[in-house]
Design brief:
- It is a single chain.
- By secondary structure, the protein is an alpha/beta fold.
- Helices cover 33% and strands 19% of the residues.
- The chain has a single domain, classed as 3-Layer(aba) Sandwich (Rossmann fold), CATH 3.40.50.1820.
- It binds 2-acetamido-2-deoxy-beta-D-glucopyranose (2 copies).
- Residues 151, 155 line the site of one 2-acetamido-2-deoxy-beta-D-glucopyranose.
- One 2-acetamido-2-deoxy-beta-D-glucopyranose is lined by residues 151, 155.
- This is Lipase-like.
């Protein structure tokens, strides 16, 4: 008798524990108006693709990382292409890269920034410890940011190229929603870009989604930022080191870096074969102590995979560029060697692709 009772009790406890776990997952996946899991798994692919160095493949959207969800949608819905790049910019001087393109789902202009290409990601991460808050964000009293991150977007070929591409896109598509993304240092640049679009370019519908980005400014900056670009998701993964840097010093609120919201922390719970993924939507402070800050940031491998998608270039240390000679018809090089590849959104991609195809490039456009 006693045994049976224990058995029932144990079974009940088990069921409660199990359903609790499931509820936890459901609760964290889709209850927040700002966070859309499906959208995140699409956007992460753009943040991954922008690392690739073959400019021809990126411009024709035929790269190895360009074939995920967008390719499936292309086949099912018979779209010519799930995504069309209209501007690809490589700042050779500073080893930076970004693109602007038009996506069908989500129906938006996507802007993506590549992360660092330093010879050693470890060295780059170690340097992050020492980054100073050394620049006053223009027009925002007491808002301090890191000069290096700020200038990587504002004082390179990237900003003018992006602004120009957005103007061209606007002529063809009107006021479309803009989604800005990037991983690591690219995430830092994406956040400065999103803010710039709102503050200086009067864009209405701007969404920012970054993956494993470092802190970029102080609490005052974070507060301005979150008012101006409320539609922002900052995804962090497990023990990824980079979102922990530059460090947050609890005891020096005036001197410390401070993340802006809204963090979504991806982590595993359970043991052995019962491990599953949780996506925790964090509080509005930017520094939710129960999210990634609740663990130590001690992993580089957690920095390099988001939603199962490989981030980084896989060949660190190279600012290598691969470009088909035919692509030079569409490219401009400035006096400092920086490259701009532009495409008129109204011109058919087919023509461009067959041109590249003459050089033996793989092209998947019908
Ligand atoms: C989430 O994003 C996907 C992909 O863009 C979209 O199809 C879906 O409607 C979105 N869901 C919500 C609830 O907005
Ligand atoms: C901005 O860029 C120009 C040209 O590359 C350079 O001469 C200048 O020093 C940069 N300014 C800062 C503050 O980095």
């Amino acid at each position: 008798m006693g045994k049976t009772r224990w058995f029932i009790l144990a079974t009940c406890l088990c069921l409660i524990a199990f359903s609790d776990g499931r509820e936890l997952k459901a609760q964290h996946t889709n209850r927040h108006p700002l966070y859309n899991h499906t959208l995140a798994t699409i956007i992460v692919q753009y943040a991954s693709a922008v690392y690739l160095s073959d400019l021809t493949e990126l411009l024709t959207w035929t790269c190895s990382r360009c074939n995920g969800l967008t390719e499936v949608l292309r086949i099912i819905l018979k779209w010519k292409q799930g995504f069309e790049v209209i501007e690809l910019v490589v700042d050779v001087e500073h080893c930076l890269q970004g693109f602007v393109g038009i996506a069908k789902d989500p129906d938006a202009i996507i802007i993506a920034f590549r992360g660092t290409q330093e010879s050693s990601i470890q060295n780059w991460i170690e340097d992050l410890f020492w980054k100073q808050l050394d620049l006053n964000y223009p027009g925002m009293t007491d808002a301090m940011v890191h000069r290096g991150f700020y200038y990587a977007y504002h004082n390179t070929t990237l900003r003018p190229a992006i602004v120009n591409a957005l103007e061209r896109a606007k002529k063809n598509y009107g006021d479309t929603k803009i989604i800005v993304t990037g991983h690591s240092m690219g995430g830092a640049m994406a956040s400065f870009c999103g803010l710039d679009l709102k503050v200086n370019l009067n864009a209405q519908d701007v969404q920012v989604m970054t993956f494993g980005q470092p802190r970029v400014g102080n609490a005052v900056f974070a507060s301005y930022y979150s008012k101006l670009v409320p539609n922002t998701i900052r995804v962090t993964n497990g023990h990824d080191m980079v979102p922990h840097l530059p460090p947050y010093y609890y005891y020096f609120p005036k001197k410390t870096y401070h993340h802006f919201p809204r963090e979504v922390w991806l982590y595993n719970i359970g043991l052995g074969s019962l491990v599953y993924r949780v996506e925790k939507i964090c509080d509005g402070s930017g520094e939710d102590p129960s999210c990634s800050r609740s663990v130590s940031g001690n992993s580089i491998s957690d920095h390099l995979v988001y939603y199962g998608v490989e981030m980084g270039s896989g060949e660190p240390g190279t600012c290598r560029i691969v470009m088909n000679p035919q692509a030079s018809d569409h490219s401009i090089r400035d006096s400092r060697g920086n490259i701009l590849l532009s495409r008129d959104p109204a011109s058919p991609l087919k023509e461009l692709s067959s041109k590249f195809d003459n050089e033996g490039k793989r092209v998947s456009v019908e």
